[in-house]
Amino acid sequence: MRWDYLNFLWDDDVGTMMQPNIVKIGCCAGFSGDRYDAGVPVAEALALADGPAYLMYETLAERTLALAQIQRRCDPEVGYTPYLADFLRPVLRTCLENGIPIVGNFGAANPPAAARRILALANELNLSTPCVATVEGDDVLESFGERTIRSWNNDEKRDLTGSRIIAANAYLGGRPIADALSDGADIVVTGRCTDSALAVGPLIHAFGLQHDEWDRLATAVLTGHLLECGAHVTGGYFADPGYKDVPGMASIGFPIAEVSADDIATITKPPRTGGLVSAATVTEQLLYEIHDPSAYLTPDVQLNMTDVEVEDLGENRVRVMGARGAPPPGKLKVTVSIEGDFLAEGEIGYSGLNALARARLAARTLLERIELHGSNCAVRCDIIGAASIHDSIYSRRWQEDSVPSEGDYRVRLAGSTQNRAEAENVAREVLSLYANGPAGGAGVRYCVTPRVHTLSSYISAADIKPKITFYGQRK
């Protein structure tokens, strides 16, 4: 059915593609740790539907790409999302056999290696060889070098002299994704791009949107913004029992957007899945991570959402319309990742009679031990169950008497230092409580983690030249 429809779109009389009335985009991941099986009902629903349809995977956070760059330096065949095959294995056959292109930023620091892994996966599954396109050009560390990037201003006004830059990537827009789809890609693999670009690219391609169709591009960005966090908009991050109840959380359905040619986006989810799509869930995601609703800046368009209307149609369908667009800024945001300090962490639990007193003694002992060593490590100690998240940076509330003496408490020590050996010594102090007391400590875990710091800088959009490369069987 889907291929018949796509053939119908081709107008033999004029030799051009006709624009569809509705384009569907399903989101199958909102971050790299998302559920592998979330895409299955989305892909199945799109396969049964008429009209052009696409799947998108959003798997990059700010620091994720820096960590991927470190992995690539150790092995040139990694550096893409390590869960790439786990995400695609459940849906690849359905998508290829039903003409549903997949777009994902799972290329991270190494889109070519990701493309090769996808081709290998298709071969493992005995599928016909797909056409995989990579979009590169976001890696400005590769094109400009550390010395130049250190000279750029950054929002944090930090002097980068002497800092080791791990990664620096510009946020690309949806246009190169659209170009790859227009040239026949079944799967488009990107590195850093805006999250919304994963939906903007397919909508530019499907509707043939021009560079200056600002309102239509604004609707595309709005759609991508609603989809980019996966189950956020279908009730996942919305759920709060007794206040905002959401059914079927274990089988929550991931979102599908139906975007019409007259700039209306309808958000829904696959049938027979859990979750909730309502005016409230959509409005909450609409405002998620928005600084200025009148000027949401992207490489494709400046989105003004102040006139956006959200209408609940019932049965998990919500209509969104009224996005307005203006020309985008001439600069692209660049996330610069530098080597940071070392985070030392350790935890130990105390429960039962007089548990709080023993946890307090453990915390005081840890702090005294670190002082005895003359450590320069900046530390804080919390007692989870007594006071932690709502405590101040000085973490002193666990010493107050308003907490029950019996219960389950967990002491957490955290420290920050530039010296790895010092960090390991601090974390190991928690382990030593096993035998040195107080009584009844259990469930110790401790670790040292090197940290990556990120900064925001900007580059002229004219200085970025996206590059598209094709792998596999090109149509």
Write up this protein.
The protein has 475 residues and is of the alpha+beta class. Helix content is 30%, strand content 27%. The chain contains 13 helices and 20 strands. The chain has helices spanning 2-9, 39-48, 64-74, 84-88, 92-97, 111-124, 140-150, 175-182, 197-207, 214-227, 279-286, 355-372, 420-436; strands at 10-11, 16-17, 22-29, 53-57, 102-104, 131-136, 165-170, 187-190, 256-260, 264-268, 296-297, 302-304, 309-312, 318-321, 324-326, 331-352, 378-384, 407-417, 442-460, 467-472. The strands form 4 sheets. Strands 13-14-10-9-3-4-5-8-6-20 form a 10-stranded mixed beta sheet, sandwiched between helices. Strands 7, 16, 17, 18 and 19 form a 5-stranded antiparallel beta sheet that branches. Strands 11-12-15 form a 3-stranded antiparallel beta sheet, with helices on one face. α2 (39-48) links the parallel β3 (22-29) and β4 (53-57). The chain is globular. The mean pLDDT is 92.
